[in-house]
Amino acid sequence: MKKTTAMQLTTMGLMTALMCVLAPLSIQLPGLVPISLGSFIVYLTVYIVGLEYAAVSNVVYILLGAFGLPVFSGYVGGLAKLTGPTGGYIIGFIAVTIVCGIALKVFKGNIVAFFAAMVVGTALLYLLGTLWFMHVMGTGLQASLTACVYPFIPFDLVKMVIVCILGPAVRIPLVKAGLLKSYKTN
């Protein structure tokens, strides 16, 4: 088993903190599902630190929220949020992390492949979240898609484009400074 360094722990802690600060920021649309920065931070975290560190950061974020810290959209925390209508989307962040993280490893940080992985990961996020929403709310597929998916597609695409610009702008200097390994050498 690989030993985790202080720098790696610090990086995971910083990304978790960033998620805890930015993910609660949200705009409430009509209905139960807000537009939040949660998926944006998940995409960015994966791009900057890779699969393993991002997965740990996301799980810690979810656990902090589950234990009541107000880190979920709208500054809410607790198990009720995870078991409520939007809980499937929060848990779905882990699926996005896995899909995007694997793409980074396989395609050595290629930004076009990462964008495609964000699209696939987000489709999986929509699937998991919408199925949970339907279960909790007792709604049909079309009503759930109308409430939980269609309004969010343009916003999520914009988030992905911003991550494709911001991710390398943050990661490349960290690699050059020797703080992170290049995806091409992993």
Written overview of the protein:
This protein has 186 residues and is an all-alpha fold. The chain has one domain: Orthogonal Bundle (Arp2/3 complex 21 kDa subunit ARPC3). It contains seven helices and two strands. The protein has a two-stranded antiparallel ribbon. The longest helix is centred in the first third of the chain and has 29 residues. The model has no long low-confidence stretch (mean pLDDT 92).
Task: Kindly state the number of beta strands.
Answer: 2
Number of helices: 7
Low-confidence stretches: none
Determine and state the CATH class.
Mainly Alpha
Q: Determine the mean pLDDT.
A: 92
CATH architecture: Orthogonal Bundle
List the helices and strands and how they pair.
Layout: H1 6-22, E1 26-27, E2 35-36, H2 38-66, H3 79-83, H4 87-106, H5 111-137, H6 141-148, H7 153-176
Antiparallel strand pairs: 1-2
Helix pairs in contact: 1-2, 2-4, 2-7, 4-5, 5-6, 5-7
Question: Quick summary of this structure?
Answer:
With 186 residues, the protein is mainly α. The chain contains 7 helices and 2 strands; from the N terminus they run αββαααααα.
Question: Which properties best describe this structure?
Answer:
186 residues; mainly alpha; Arp2/3 complex 21 kDa subunit ARPC3
